[in-house]
Amino acid sequence: MARTDEDTEQLTRPAEPAGPTATTDRPPAADAVTPDDRTPDGRLPGGRMPDGRMPRWLPRAMVLALALIAAFQLGSWAFHQLTGLLINILIAFFLALAVEPAVSRMAARGMRRGLATFLVFFVLTIAAAGFVTLLGSMLAGQIIKMIEGFPDYLDSLIHWINQTFHANLRRVDVQEGLLHSDWLRKYAQNSAAGVLDVSQQVLGGLFQLLTVALFSFYFAADGPRLRRALCSVLPPARQSEVLRAWEIAVGKTGGYLYSRGLMALVSGVAHYILLQALGVPYAPVLGVWVGLVSQFIPTIGTYLAGALPMLIAFTVAPWYAVWVLVFVVIYQQFENYMLQPKLTAKSVDIHPAVAFGSVIVGTALLGAVGALISIPAVATLQAFLGAYVKRYDVTDDPRVNGHRVRAQGGSGVLARLRAARARR
């Protein structure tokens, strides 16, 4: 067969290089790895498997994450359920710190620590029971007196209304209207339904009081054993710090209660003298009430304690209640600016503004319990951290002294007298 010119040209043309094929000349992929890059167990870098399977660590990580979430939820639920018990334990701990000096002093004289703790708590229980009994009898007597005098008060009120508004009211009509009113019937029903709630609250309060007493007794009686158990899990350097913090807490809590007890004594005696001079009944019990409530309920304790003497004084004469109110206000100022700084300067050593702020924070966190324990807790923390804060001498500057310091060579009289004394 004859070849054409086109075939001859193709045979004589030089061969062109072949293009890249799909199998041999493809550029390498960016994530391609060599066998040397794999781990000993055959996995790729990053934990990937060569066949696209899930890494072995991922299921374990997911199970661990779910377990941690479940543990957190369980712990949060348990904490909220045990909040009341934790607060009772906190109260018991501070109460044990308060009685620690007395128990340790009795134990140092040879008495068994358990017996010493029992005697201290027995004395406190007798004192508290006696005070509650006297206060209850006083309140019961005043309530009976007010009920017996209610007809006379009602007659005086009706007479004043008839004279002022030219009405014709009678006590019998008023009593009949009150007895047959819907308001009184609903109030009686609500009161009957609330008796069960009050009983439950009373029983709950007694149970909490018993819990606090038991824990505080064990904390005080087994104080050395508790400290030994706590220090046994700490290195020696930490043990000294824990024991030092414990000692500071005992000193500050005891000092706080000691200073508050002195101020309660002074306040009770002062109010007793006033009430006795006015002829108000139950003056000794009212004096003890004012002294304790005004000192151990911070900020508003003085005014809350003065409300009961004012009410009792009002039953004697209305003007006596005004005199009691004036005396309470004046004594509060005397206590804040004269008595309290002197008594608490060495025992607690905390600024009044810091004390007030700690009471607010404690009340917001733990309510009345926080208000009671906030001041000794902050004083303990301040004293413990003070050992780790390095202090320096402050320069003599008017901005820190609060007044301008006069130079030694000034032209004042005092400066000239100092210069003449120096020449001699």
Automatic annotation (TrEMBL):
Family named by the database record: Belongs to the autoinducer-2 exporter (AI-2E) (TC 2.A.86) family.
Gene Ontology CC: plasma membrane
Protein name, UniProt field: Putative PurR-regulated permease PerM
Organism of this sequence: Streptomyces murinus
GO BP of this protein: transmembrane transport
Transmembrane segments: 57-79, 85-103, 115-144, 202-221, 262-280, 286-304, 311-334, 354-381
Subcellular location: Cell membrane
Keyword terms: Cell membrane, Membrane, Transmembrane, Transmembrane helix, Transport
Region (Disordered), start-end ranges: 1-52
Topological type in the membrane: Multi-pass membrane protein
Entries under Pfam families matching the protein: AI-2E_transport (PF01594)
